[in-house]
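PROTEIN DESIGN WORKSHEET
SECTION A - STRUCTURE
LENGTH: 80
TOKENS:
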């Protein structure tokens, strides 16, 4: 992680998700790591009637940033 920070490499680790009962939301398994990195924000959503699952990634800081929206399928992710 430190090497990636020094070299300006965007590191994305996506692993399991879990439901946080206290916050009533789904969180990535590495959510505390993402908070410390301060360059990656992951938002996971599931729409009730259609069961459509979407992951939104916001990469970078205020000057250099990129937003991606991905549809989560059983075997892969699709950029939407």
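SECTION B - SEQUENCE
RESIDUE ASSIGNMENT:
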């Amino acid at each position: 992680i430190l090497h990636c920070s020094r070299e300006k490499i965007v590191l994305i680790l996506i692993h399991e998700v879990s439901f946080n009962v206290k916050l009533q939301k789904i969180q990535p398994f590495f959510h505390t790591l993402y908070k410390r990195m301060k360059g990656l924000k992951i938002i996971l959503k599931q729409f009730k009637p259609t069961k459509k699952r979407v992951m939104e990634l916001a990469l970078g800081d205020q000057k250099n940033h990129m937003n991606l929206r991905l549809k989560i399928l059983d075997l892969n992710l699709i950029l939407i």
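SECTION C - NOTES
The chain has a mean pLDDT of 73.
Residues 2-79 form one domain.
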